Amino acid sequence: QVHLVESGGGSVQSGGSLRLSCKATRYTVYMGWFRQAPGRERESVARMITVDGRTTYADSVKGRFTISRDNAKNTLFLQMDSLKPEDTAMYYCAAAQEWRPYPWSDPKHYTDWGQGTQVTVSS
Predict the structure, then answer these.
(1) 77 CB neighbour count, 10 Å cutoff
(2) How far apart are CA 37 and CA 91, in angstroms?
(3) pLDDT digit string (tens) for 17-46?
C-alpha cells in the first residue's frame, strides 16, 4: 500500500494555471489524476506509467494539462493551464503498483488514493 498526499489546489480565474503535486510514500508504477465535481461521478484526467513515462489524457484536458513525475522524489505533478470553470472539482491522485484488468480511466484500475485537493475556476 502507498500513502498519497496531494497539494497545490486553489482558486483561479478562467484562463489561469495551477500545478498540483502528489507525494507518494514509495515508488509506484501506475499513477493517475482523477477529479470529481459535486453531484458527478469521479472522472479520469490523466495517467502515467512511471517506468517508461507513457502518458494518457482525457479528451477534455488534452493540450491544456500536462502530467509529469519526479521519480527520485516519488512525486507526481499535474500542470493545468488555460483552466475553465468546468475544471472545477476535487482532484485526486491515484496509484497502483501492479497492472489491474480495468481501463486506465476506471477508478478500479487503482488501489490507493489521496485525500484530494480542491480546484475552483471562476469565470
Answers:
(1) 18
(2) 9
(3) 999 999 999 999 999 999 999 999 999 999
